[in-house]
Amino acid sequence: MDAVSIPAVARKLEVSRATLYRTIATKEELLGVLFERSTQQLTEDAVAIMSNGRGVRERLSSLVGLQVEAAVRMQQYMPVFFGGAGIAPDVFQRWHTWSREYESLWAQCVQEAMDKRVLKKADVVATTRLLLGMCIWVSRWYRPSEGISTGDIIESAIRLLPAAPVRAKGTQRIRRSPGKS
Fold it and tell me: Which helix (H) or strand (E) holds 11?
């Protein structure tokens, strides 16, 4: 939040401060615009993943990758996102609405993954929040200087998902004799 300033943004956008001030009057407004732009892009990317026609495991893995990359990219903004400090109350309220909708998108994928036995049956909301929380927490500990790439993190997170469908409780595996089909 401290790194964001109207003059710095004006330089980055190659516009005068006066021009930027006519559109965005305060740092709080600027943070709101940046915040909403980030969440909108994240939603668009998640919707694209969910509608890409791939299997549920691939979609879930893609959502994990998307969220880890977002957590690293928006690492400096996370305290603002979670505490609401520095953004207007109406923007913070819209963030709450957005987060519920975004979580719902993830929950659809988690529910389908459970239905298709890609994930073990459990509480969908709790599982969704645990998966999202795991990805979001990357923003707290990620340090590029440690040599762990976002690809490494994504791969490690995806390896936590079961590799093969999980059998339902009480079912037995049917063993076939060699040579019989």
Answer: helix 6-13
For residues 62 and 74, give the distance between their C-alpha atoms in angstroms, rounded to a whole number.
Answer: 18
Distance CA 83, CA 88 (A): 12
What single-letter amino acid sits at 150? T
**Spatial CB neighbours of 26, under 8 Å, sequence gap ≥ 6:** none
Cα–Cα distance between 46 and 105 in angstroms, integer?
8
What digits encode the pLDDT tens for the residues 109-119?
Answer: 999 999 999 99
Burial of 62-79, coded b for 16+ CB within 10 Å and e otherwise, reads bbbbbbbbbbbebbebee
pTM, 2 dp: 0.75
Q: Check if the beta carbon of residue 58 is closer than 8 Å to that of residue 116.
A: no
CA distance 164 to 162: 6
